[in-house]
Amino acid sequence: MGETRKHEKYEALIAMCRALAPVRTAVVHPCDQSTLQATIEAAQIKIIRPILVGPTAKIRAAAASAGLDVGAFPLIDTPHSHAAAAKAVELVRTGEADMLMKGSLHTDELMTEVVRTDTGIRTERRISHIFIMDVPTYPKPLFITDAAVNILPNLEEKADIARNAIDLCHAFGIVQPKVAILSAVETISSKIPSTLEAAALCKMAERDQIAGAILDGPLAFDNAISRDAAAIKHIASAVAGDADVLLVPDLEAGNMLVKALSFLADADAAGIVLGARVPIILTSRADSLRTRVASCAVAALYAHAKRVAIGSVGKPE
């Protein structure tokens, strides 16, 4: 399989951004080569309009050591990473930025500022993380949630996790995404609580408590992504074998699933956080440049989709 085909889903979503205005993005503590490279590339292809927030001397030193030029970007000086996170969140609150992008600071540092009750940018929606997987053996992008933020979500939290994923699918132009609620089995059993929650989520969808998608579960992983496996189990479902979204039972299961696909199936995993006022680009130190740029593109598509309903974002220069 060629490199081009491996990245074809990511290339398609990056191409979707070409017709859109770049989105104002506060890049938090970008004091490492990987973050700066991704920022520059995403800016060059007009996905984002970066605002670099962090210690000016460190940012410029990191850029110089990597042979990168950040002179064209606004730079807001802060003494350290904690202050950078607080300032970036403030830029969102004051309407000066429409996305956040994590740099070389701990995720907890950034998210602590995001969720503060007095100065944060929370909404009534539960915050959750979504991986957008480019799996070479699957015919379309695969959304997996939540494998990074919510450790052991309850029923109500899973409902919000599903709503966040559905909103993101809509931003991709998937009008009626198919959400597979995963468990170890496809039958409901009181011995496996995740099967009961899956059944409840499906009933919530029937009653329009979760709207805009087709939900089914519990489904085992094979039934969710393989029509043959679903047929063998005699599962009649619009979701089985054709899922857009995999809603995992807990963080451990989701994290293992994403890493298994990444390291055994040669998949790429772009990731963002939703549920706050703006999308948050969370990248890993192990992410490739293409994956980092794809994460920017995913967040930008979502930010533009939100603009349709609530106002202006990423206006052309």
Characteristics:
single chain, 317 residues, alpha/beta, Rossmann fold, Isopropylmalate Dehydrogenase, 2 domains, eleven-stranded mixed sheet, globular, disordered C terminus
Would you kindly provide a brief summary of this structure?
Helices cover 42% and strands 17% of the residues. It is α/β, with parallel strands linked by helices and 317 residues long. It folds into two domains: 1-122 and 276-317, 3-Layer(aba) Sandwich (Rossmann fold), CATH 3.40.50; 128-274, Isopropylmalate Dehydrogenase, CATH 3.40.718.10.
Explain how this protein is built.
42% of the residues lie in helices and 17% in strands. With 317 residues, the chain is an alpha/beta fold. The protein has 2 domains: 1-122 and 276-317, Rossmann fold (3-Layer(aba) Sandwich); 128-274, Isopropylmalate Dehydrogenase, CATH 3.40.718. Strands 3-2-1-4-11-10-5-6-9-7-8 form an 11-stranded mixed beta sheet, with helices on both faces. β7, α8 and β8 form a beta-alpha-beta unit. The longest helix is centred in the last third of the chain and has 22 residues, at 289-310. The radius of gyration is 19 Å and the shape is globular. Mean pLDDT is 92; it is low at 312-317.
Itemize the secondary structure elements and their pairings:
Layout: H1 3-6, H2 8-16, E1 23-28, H3 33-44, E2 48-54, H4 56-65, E3 75-77, H5 81-93, E4 99-102, H6 107-114, E5 128-134, E6 142-145, H7 155-171, E7 178-182, H8 193-206, E8 214-219, H9 221-225, H10 227-232, E9 245-247, H11 251-264, E10 268-274, E11 280-281, H12 289-310
Parallel strand pairs: 1-2, 1-4, 2-3, 4-11, 6-9, 7-8, 7-9
Antiparallel strand pairs: 5-6, 5-10, 10-11
Helix pairs in contact: 2-12, 3-12, 5-6, 7-12
